[in-house]
Design a protein that fits this description.
homodimer; mainly alpha; Annexin V, domain 1; 20 helices; repeat (chains A, B); annexin (chains A, B); Annexin (chains A, B); Annexin_repeat_CS (chains A, B)
């Protein structure tokens, strides 16, 4: 369900590297050529190009993009060209320095919206880049207080079972526990709710949430959303979405980054770059169904130039 | 600091597999030959032998050892022959079914006494073997209550920074935090103490514990040990040892498994098998310094036969 298109046949990595070199050499930059090449290659192909480029020209591709480009276009191109695990590590590291719901989202996305193996790769990349573990930086982050902090530590430390096996009896029992805490409010959210959402596998959680909806007539994310002003409930809802239906979360991130005064380019770039190879097709469908607009038309309304160019390339045709 | 000895040159894996086959075929078993081969090979070599054996004889080496051997000798040979990550996953899974301090130790050992990358491999092996993640099984384990359970979840979920970089200022500040909680008792043990011990890198923790000792004249493990009857304090002390000086912990495990009524073969086997390729030489030195006996003499006093044979092979000469 990736949205990017790859040419067939794909040129050899050295040829791509040479064409990138031509685009960045001499006076001016051929931004279109950069989009045309990098915007139509998979993560593995971009990694090969970066290796070929460094071998040929004795400078890293990322360094060159940094010195050659600027503004939102540069951010998008660099995030896209990076290794996805290193990119997520960087996004999480940056998010830990800033206050606000949108930055908490980044941590939840990194922890919950990708595969468990990708998340382990992110944690390794984080250690390599920042000489600290992701979870120790979250645990020591002065911006968060317990119980939210405990929950975030749990999310970023997780390595969930990634098989398809689902225990229906467990789903029934844990749906009841979730109901006790979220609806009946007989328990705190930072007890069993945090444990269940923080540790169970994605297929198991989907079964549990479905059971919750069947037995209680409402979806758990709707109930959590009603707890206005409760930050833990809001983060739990984000985690539920990122785990069970990430396309809903990312459609919302894109929409929120566009509506309102000005554009939140950081969020817009992050959502599109990080989902283009994962589930952008589903994000676009969700977006259309929920907002009666297309991602493309909204991106066109709020962005321009080469920045618009790379975003639309990654979003793909509607 | 491994204690096992490897022949030079090492026979090809197929030759080892053929000799193992000879040892287990027909009437009776040549246990000595099994010890002679498997007891003198590294984990990577044992893995190659297992692959060669299965290719040649269409049965797994572990299955054959299981059907051929019995008792404590079988347990030791099977744990030794297994892939180390799968072995630790199995030990943790078993420990989660049983009550008692010695079983909590296993979880702490698995989480803290090996490298962060090995621990990730254990977590992957656990998911593959038990269709659940290690941390979700700890989090759902009915044998433990908060705050101990939260601490255990944190330990088994960790992926610590494994570089050598130490922040001295942080060590000073966190030594003071540890003092406030452990000595002055101004804070609970499940606050910053659990966070620091549960997330910081091993070199960082060693610096922090050393700072604690310098500033307060006593070692943190000694202070924690005095809190008799406080289970979290006891587990924290075990974690401190497994992180900063695992040889102390494993010397104690071996000693406790031997002294007293009967022998705790499960603990004895676990300690020797899991440390033979890691730090058994240091464990032996620590043992001699603390108990004025050698591991060999104590193992000889409490075990016999082939079980004694494999243990001494792994312990190596004193």
């Amino acid at each position: 369900m990736a949205s990017i298109s790859i040419p067939d046949p794909v040129p050899p990595a050295t040829e791509d590297a040479e064409n990138i070199r031509k685009a960045v050499q001499g006076w001016g930059t051929d931004e279109k050529a950069l989009i045309e090449i990098l915007g139509h290659r998979t993560a593995a192909q971009r990694a090969e190009i970066a290796v070929a480029y460094e071998g040929l020209y004795n400078e890293t591709l990322l360094d060159r993009l940094h010195s050659e480009l600027s503004g939102d276009f540069r951010s998008a191109m660099m995030l896209w060209t990076m290794d996805p695990a290193a990119r997520d590590a960087k996004l999480a590291h940056k998010a830990l320095k800033k206050k606000g719901d949108r930055h908490v989202w980044v941590l939840v996305e990194v922890a919950c919206a990708s595969s468990p193996d990708h998340h382990v790769a992110v944690r390794k990349a984080y250690c390599a880049a920042y000489s600290a573990s992701l979870e120790e930086d979250v645990a020591a982050c002065p911006l968060y207080k317990d119980p939210l902090k405990q929950f975030l530590v749990r999310l970023v430390s997780s390595y969930r079972y990634s098989g398809e096996l689902v225990d229906d009896e467990l789903a029934r029992a844990e749906a009841a526990e979730l109901h006790d805490a979220v609806v009946a409010r007989k328990q705190t959210l930072h007890g069993d709710v945090a444990r269940i959402v923080g540790s169970r596998s994605k297929p198991q959680l989907k079964a549990t949430f479905e059971r919750f909806r069947q037995e209680h007539g409402r979806a758990i994310d709707d109930v959590l959303e009603e707890r206005r002003g409760d930050q833990l409930a809001a983060v739990l809802k984000t985690a539920v979405w990122c785990l069970a239906c990430p396309e809903k979360h990312f459609a919302e991130v894109i929409r929120i980054s566009i509506v309102g005064l000005g554009t939140d380019e950081e969020s817009l770039t992050r959502a599109i770059v990080s989902r283009a190879e994962v589930d952008m097709k589903k994000v676009k469908e969700e977006y259309k169904a929920r907002y009666r607009k297309t991602v493309t038309s909204d991106v066109n309304g709020d962005t321009s130039g080469y920045y618009n160019g790379i975003l639309l390339t990654l979003v793909g045709p509607e």
